[in-house]
Amino acid sequence: MYAHRLTSEATNASAEPVSVSQVKNHLRITAAAEDALIGLYITAARQMAEDITKRALINTQWELTFDSFDPTYKIVLPRPPLSTDSAQVVITYTKTTGDTTTINSTVYAVEHRDEPGFIRLNYNSTWPDDVQDTEGAVRVVYRSGYTTANQAPEAIKHWIKMRAGQMYEYREPIISGGIRGVVSEVPRDYVDGLLDPYRVAITI
Length: 204
Description:
The chain is α+β, with helices and mostly antiparallel strands. The protein is built from three helices and ten strands; from the N terminus they run E-H-H-E-E-E-E-E-E-E-H-E-E. Helix 1 crosses helix 2 and helix 2 packs across helix 3.
């Protein structure tokens, strides 16, 4: 059975696409008393944007595991943009003998121009057929995400600033105001149209 699982480890999480000072300018805040709190809002907003768009907004290492190799000979790598450094992609698998081995990079090519990127076999190459029948026998480690904040799309960065600002202004899931003290929930679709052009059509 061809099953897959995706996990991640953000190794450059300090390099958020939006800085605390940028959000403070957006909100017209000059004091530094709540800088740490604003930083947490930025991280939360970035994680929300990643979940909505299914892309990586910061430099992230991913591990994609399979129970066997894809019979279509193509391995899709979720959460673009994929690193242009093909050396960042490493494929290992557990053999029927129980040993773990790394597949030589001459066997496959990494296509990073598409979104999401993918791995394909080179001409006259095949995936190994001595894969152990066990969960997660095939392991693909790769990197994706924008290397610097300048590379992230402006619309996504603006969305993060607005969402972080909304969390700052409305610290509970309901808001009240007006003469009659009207209470309503904060809308879930707040300016989400900014993210629409960057949504990736993949379910992983």
